[in-house]
Amino acid sequence: MKLPDTFLWGAATSPHQTEGNNLNSDWWALETGAPQILPERSGDAVDSYHRYHEDMTLLGQAGLNAYRFGVEWARIEPTRGQVSRAMLDHYRRMIDTALDRGLTPVVTLHHFTGPAWFADSGGWASSDAVGRFSDFVTAVAPILVDVPWVCTINEPNMVAIMASVQQMVADPQAVRVIAAGALPEPDPDIGRILIDSHHAATAILRSETSAAVGWSIAQQAFVAAPGCERQLAEANRVWEDPYLEAAAGDDFVGSQAYTSRTVGEDGIVAHPDHPDNTLTGWAYRPDALGIAVRHAWEVTGGTPVLVTENGIATDDDTRRIAYTGEALAHLRAAMADGVDVRGYLHWSALDNYEWGHWRPTFGLIAVDRRTFARTPKPSLAWLGDLARANTLPTPEHLNLSN
């Protein structure tokens, strides 16, 4: 399959997980106040705030042509209405560095974290949440004038879950349930506010920039147990379809998939412990990517798809290469069936802070957390070789079926 020259081959990060010392963010406060849910803190993270030049250099030298990173609202607007010119300049330097390294910047405006003042005043549940986010987008828009791709909100369906979690941390019983891994469903009321916020941000960005604008969805790649198609449709309706439907008419929709989950008669089936599970406890399911992009394409009515995250938590890089190769083969099969996919951004560029834990390692680059030394893994060179060849592995090559 001949890929267009514009196909994006890259890797992704988020500010809070990599920059370090995001002191004014709601997550920094949550790490301090809810150790039962977030047992490990981000701290210095991997110091990408100061070392982003090195990170981008490694990606570009490997052969990748894109880098997805975020701007941190809590740094840019540490108190309401106080916009930091220095922080805007910092993120503009990141954009320039990406361009200088031959990396197409894919910039995310909200990747789970926001200012503490925003959370303290009600967060996404507040009556003026759309206006507050719009003000932030308006402040950032001038540094995005030549950015080709902008993602407004990362995984709004997960943000709608996190909003519920943050409201529940005062309840000891709820904290115990959450700590055991039982997350609530996305809050539909928060979801509607996030959809309105995305549409407002899209209008601003289309007015002020030339970027392709969309948002990214956490896709569960649900599959039905025999005879459970109705339950499958309901699970998709609750977990992701409203957010995909909101992307109809966008320039792209970001697909983020790591594993697949089965839906049975009583709903989503908990995945059991298994030797093949990843470091996050998820099933090893590289076919999830193909399931996800097909579903995104169908529900949005043909919005172009950009894979904004896909990867595996493992300390075995050979397994990372195997998983990614299989995922890309399933992506190729979906594209052969007509799904318009514009690029593949691996999660993650770096081993980083995984929202309360340091053990899961997703990165193409290892980081010594004491010295911050970067060590590229073989998977980075492997993915870079695919990028240079601009080709996807075939199912036949990997002994897969469509």
Structure description:
- This protein is of the alpha/beta class and 402 residues long.
- It is built from 15 helices and 13 strands.
- The strands form three sheets. An eight-stranded parallel beta barrel has the order 1-2-3-4-5-7-10-11, surrounded by six helices. A three-stranded mixed sheet has the order 6-8-9.
- Strand 10, helix 14 and strand 11 form a beta-alpha-beta unit.
- The mean pLDDT is 94.
Estimated helix fraction: 40-55%
Q: Average pLDDT, to the nearest integer?
A: 94
What is the beta-strand fraction? 15-25%
Taken in chain order, the helices and strands follow as: EHHHEHHEHHEHHHEEHHEEEHEHEEEH
Q: How many H/I helical runs?
A: 15
Q: How many strand segments?
A: 13
Regarding quaternary structure, what we see is single chain
Largest sheet, in brief, is: 8 strands, parallel, barrel
Global structural class = alpha/beta
Instruction: State the end-to-end CA separation.
Output: 15 Å
Overall radius of gyration:
20 Å
Tell the overall outline.
Answer: globular
Side by side, the strands of the main sheet go 1-2-3-4-5-7-10-11
Task: Name the poorly predicted regions.
Answer: none
